Amino acid sequence: MKIVMVVRLVDGGMKKHIDTLLSSLGSLEVVFVGSRELAERYQLKSCQLDISDGLSYRRDIRSIGELARVIKNESPDLVHVHGMKAALIARLALLLRKKPPPLVYTVHNYPIWSVQKGLSKINTILERQLQKRTSAYIAVSYPLATYIARTWKAKDVYVVHNGLEVIYQDYSKAAGELTVGTMVRLVKEKGVDVLLGALALLKNEGLAVRCLVAGMGPEKWRLQRLVEEYGLGDKVSFLGMVEDVEAFMSQLSLFVMPSRSEGLSYAILEAMACGKPIIASDVGGIPDLVEPGITGYLVPPDQPQALAQALKRLIFDRPMMELFGSNSRRRVLTEFTAERMVQQTMEVYSEVLQKDRGIVGK
Prior knowledge:
Distance between the termini: 21 Å
Largest sheet: 7 strands, parallel
Number of strands: 13
Number of helices: 14
CATH superfamily of the largest domain: Glycogen Phosphorylase B
Structural class: alpha/beta
Strand content: 15-25%
Shape: elongated
Helix content: 40-55%
CATH class of the largest domain: Alpha Beta
Order of helices and strands: EHEHEHEHEHEHEEHEHEHEHEHEHHH
CATH architecture of the largest domain: 3-Layer(aba) Sandwich
């Protein structure tokens, strides 16, 4: 089977998903359109294409034409795209082909336009039109699949959870100074300001909790000002990008994901794999990962008071933290492995190709 995989320049969870997928697709011939780093790591035939976020008439028209030529020259059995911009470019490129190959679109997160009414309507109209060149959607969580089916009126929607190659040790036994932490891109959607607000509320109650924040992003300076404003300068540390995830997680007593929007967080998966209890927002695909009262707690998004209460409930109960941490690790090892993710993706490929070839009814 020959696949053209189209990806915009990525980092974070989407990059980890694609990295995991590529590491296990050795039996397939993959032509990679996107990150040079990933193409070189897996020694893939590749094409460098400028698929950046945002709209640029000249750049995007050029990318559509170049991708159409790649697809013509390679004659793949299937095209697999990751992310909204890559999906837009690829499907417009397929409109230039008389007999285009089937296309699978993996949706990793909610469109940013879903929270902006005018742009959301435009996105929905565009997506419904482009379904003519979309053989199947893969959503990384059940809530995201529901959104795709209801909002875009899509029919062939599969759920394939992110998977993790678990190479981390078990750090579920709490030790040392009580420390909470998060690992996110520092953007508004990730809600680090909500976590800081919760820590400020705990401080006002006489509970000074140490917090480690891993990640970079445009919100860094605003968040640092909030730390000073809340008087948390001696307790909150911004670590920047963290290369050694296991070393970071080993320092934590519990992991917090205060997102306002989320697909299926790899950071949560990594924390769970290290045996950490989770407190996270009840948004997006997070409930697919976190079982309240078993692996941690879910709280309403954008509510520092609710997050502070959940933190206070758990930080005074070390045995419960250890139990939640053990349950977290067990859940990842059984339900969110890389092997399972790759197997389910291959099953989607197989079904899509069978339908395209008329082996089963559409």
